[in-house]
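Narrative of accomplishments. A recurring question from our advisory board has been how the design workflow behaves on a single, concrete structure rather than in aggregate. To address it, we present the structure tokens for one chain from the evaluation set, followed by the sequence designed for it. No filtering or post-editing was applied between the two.
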């Protein structure tokens, strides 16, 4: 429990988790961090410990994957560089499997007890693990431990030990046949793209993508793929929000409020809502907008039914 506005959010829990891992303890569940009473996280915690027999055991092995390509997605952007990385399996990882919504863990040498989680942007049928990674640069010019490794240090052709992490709270599961409202920003597109690829493979066309970035000219991530889905009828609706393309800043939560009638209509049709991206600003703003559009009681009912799911960081 905590507040992400503070530097050491969930610090004791994270430290305890890392110490237990260093002693060889085996986690029976992924760590659930609750920011400001986040209802989705609390519901996941209650579901996990109220039905422990239904939980999945995580695959705890780090196995080598080979970096096949790394592509800069936002050349000329005023923001930090965003890269798409594609990893292909080696003999040791050839049998690995995952579902859309799952995570990939990266272990860094300077902090081995705290693997970094990345949303997987591909499905097994693609034959590769895809990530969208924003390069983090510290004030002194050094790069973030994990993002620097992935976007700079690791060479194409090199192998890296990675671990697949089931993320049941963000999988499609019972929502596979429902209309989907997919909301996100920045590299949060990764988790949403995984679901859209799965939906395209399943022939599910009732998909609405509401996504935000800085500028359309430089930050429309995966533009060709998104536009191809739209042209093929695999995206029923798309709302792209570029915050710096007009005098007043416009963000995902603002566009969501503008489309309130459509949101209510989709929910009445049985839609599930998936949110992926930054907690600060976007996800908290989206949650507030959904409460305003749907009402707190209905939103809580969606959480309880597994129809409101978040992968935020």
């Amino acid at each position: 429990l905590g507040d992400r506005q503070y530097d050491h959010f969930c610090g004791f829990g994270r430290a305890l988790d890392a110490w237990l891992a260093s002693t060889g303890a085996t986690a029976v569940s992924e760590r659930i961090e609750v920011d400001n009473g986040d209802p989705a996280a609390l519901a996941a915690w209650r579901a996990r410990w109220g039905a422990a027999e239904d939980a999945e055991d995580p695959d705890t092995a780090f196995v080598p994957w080979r970096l096949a390509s790394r592509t800069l997605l936002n050349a000329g952007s005023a923001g930090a560089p965003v890269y798409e990385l594609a990893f292909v399996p080696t003999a040791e990882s050839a049998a690995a499997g995952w579902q859309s919504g799952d995570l990939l863990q990266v272990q860094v040498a300077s902090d081995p007890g705290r693997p970094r989680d990345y949303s997987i942007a591909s499905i097994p049928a693609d034959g590769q693990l895809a990530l969208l990674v924003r390069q983090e640069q510290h004030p002194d010019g050094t790069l973030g431990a994990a993002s620097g490794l992935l976007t700079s240090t690791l060479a194409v052709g090199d192998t890296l030990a990675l671990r697949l992490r089931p993320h049941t709270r963000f999988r499609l599961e019972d929502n596979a046949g429902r209309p989907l409202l997919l909301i996100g920003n920045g590299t949060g597109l990764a988790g949403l793209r995984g679901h859209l690829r799965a939906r395209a493979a399943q022939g599910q066309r009732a998909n609405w993508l509401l996504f935000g970035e800085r500028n359309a000219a430089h930050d429309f991530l995966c533009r060709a793929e998104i536009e191809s889905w739209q042209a093929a009828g695999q995206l029923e609706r798309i709302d792209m929000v570029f915050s710096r393309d007009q005098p007043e800043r416009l963000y995902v939560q603002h566009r969501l409020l503008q489309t309130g009638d459509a949101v209510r209509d989709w929910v009445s049709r049985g839609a599930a809502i998936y949110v992926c991206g930054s907690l600060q600003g976007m996800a908290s703003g989206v949650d507030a907008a959904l409460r305003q559009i749907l009402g707190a009681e209905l939103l809580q009912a969606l959480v309880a039914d597994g129809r409101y799911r978040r992968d935020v960081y």
